[in-house]
Amino acid sequence: MSSVADLINRVRSFGANIVLEDGKLRIVNRPRLPASAMTYIAKHKVEIADYLQSDENVAFEECAAVIEFDGGAPREWAEQFARYLSKAKPAGVAEMDWSWFLTICGRMIDEAPRAAA
């Protein structure tokens, strides 16, 4: 199986999602998925549930949701920015430069929805 993160991204590319509610998997917008997807998800439900419960995933999803819903950013942007925020600065990059980069990314995400309106 490819990584669970890849699977979830693939599900989201169809306009659906997999969430964990009260310890059970729930498929949001199930009709958007091909029939074969449901079989694959059922076969790997334990791995998917473990991934969705992991502290790392919970923190990432929460960060991406804040960026998406509070910031008005598209989900793809929110996920990319959340990934940057969760990473350590790259080797050889000064702390001030990394902070500047994150600040500029955040500003672009904040201003883009207003510019599009």
In short:
By secondary structure, this protein is mainly alpha-helical.
Could you describe the 3D structure shown?
It is a single chain. This protein is mostly helical and 117 residues long. The protein folds into two domains: 4-53, no CATH class; 58-116, no CATH class. Helix content is 67%, strand content 9%. It is built from six helices and two strands. It has a two-stranded antiparallel sheet with strand order 1-2. A hairpin with a 2-residue loop joins β1 and β2. The longest helix has 22 residues, at 95-116. The chain is elongated, with a radius of gyration of 17 Å. The mean pLDDT is 84.
Could you give the topology of this structure?
Blueprint: H1 4-13, E1 17-21, E2 24-28, H2 35-43, H3 45-53, H4 55-70, H5 75-86, H6 95-116
Antiparallel strand pairs: 1-2
Helix pairs in contact: 4-5, 5-6
